[in-house]
């Protein structure tokens, strides 16, 4: 069986080839979209990344080329038109879970980097400027961490916060007993925003969570709060966030995701004119750190993602159905 994998990073390629050793797999660094979809003609199975564009038109092109299965190498699937896939009789599977520590640890990396001004300090020392002016941070111990979404990743983040000696506030549709055992108090979103010194997002992007932090929610946060998002960019109204930053609010903001990241993240845009005015403005703030959707990107997590993708493909071939299947084989 031949498999075509889109959006493969250089570090991923040898792992994918090794995992699919019993099958022929072709790895491309380009992302799947309307322009690149014709490349998949003749491939029964196509593997995609989270930044692939799998709307109706792309799915129709894949279907016309003979693709019968989409194996997405991510947990999120808001980029896939599942109704169209079902209508076309295409099987769709994702990776329902992988190491929660990869994302939780990176979220903490962002939080501490903006709190202790690590990027600014590094740039200064490269220029042999060893002053401490403007690098004043603060202890996390004794302060309040607000975790929006207390699933596996939120729980892992909470355990680290507990280790720092922080007070824990949580918000979710259902309480996580493991978080409660750490001393977490579940409160309304409004109370969490008003009382938290550090706020982190670990909820999926759905219509109900689109702009979970809108203009009103951002205004409800403490002026000196730290905000971290390593989940999905659409959870934050970025234009509203820029407005708050322009008013001098927030100690620091760490963003590993951006709501208009498709077509930008994972690509080299350094020699191009920046057309996204919001992103261009965002990265100019000295208290903002933006990274390129890399929170999941550890050897442990990537291996788990690839192994799960292999199982999804094998299940498809054998006619089996697992919890990873979003649209079953017709």
Question: How would you characterize this protein structure?
Answer:
The chain has 330 residues and is an alpha/beta fold. The chain has two domains: 2-98 and 298-327, NAD(P)-binding Rossmann-like Domain (Rossmann fold); 100-290, Rossmann fold (3-Layer(aba) Sandwich), CATH 3.40.50.720. 34% of the residues lie in helices and 15% in strands. It has twelve helices and 13 strands. The protein has helices at residues 13-19, 56-64, 82-87, 100-115, 118-126, 152-164, 177-181, 189-195, 215-220, 238-246, 277-282, 299-318, and strands at 2-5, 24-27, 45-48, 69-72, 91-93, 144-148, 167-171, 185-186, 198-201, 226-229, 252-255, 288-290, 325-327. The strands form two sheets. The chain has a seven-stranded parallel sheet, with helices on both faces. The chain has a six-stranded mixed sheet with strand order 2-1-3-4-5-13. Helix 4 packs across helix 6 (152-164). The protein is globular and about 60 Å long. The protein starts with a strand and ends with a strand.
CATH topology of the largest domain: Rossmann fold
Largest sheet: 7 strands, parallel
What is the class of the largest domain in the CATH system? Answer: Alpha Beta
Number of helices: 12
Kindly name the structural category.
Answer: alpha/beta
Overall form = globular
Counted up, domains total 2
CATH superfamily of the largest domain: NAD(P)-binding Rossmann-like Domain
Pfam family, one: 2-Hacid_dh
GO molecular function: D-lactate dehydrogenase (NAD+) activity; NAD binding
Organism: Streptomyces luteolifulvus
Family: Belongs to the D-isomer specific 2-hydroxyacid dehydrogenase family.
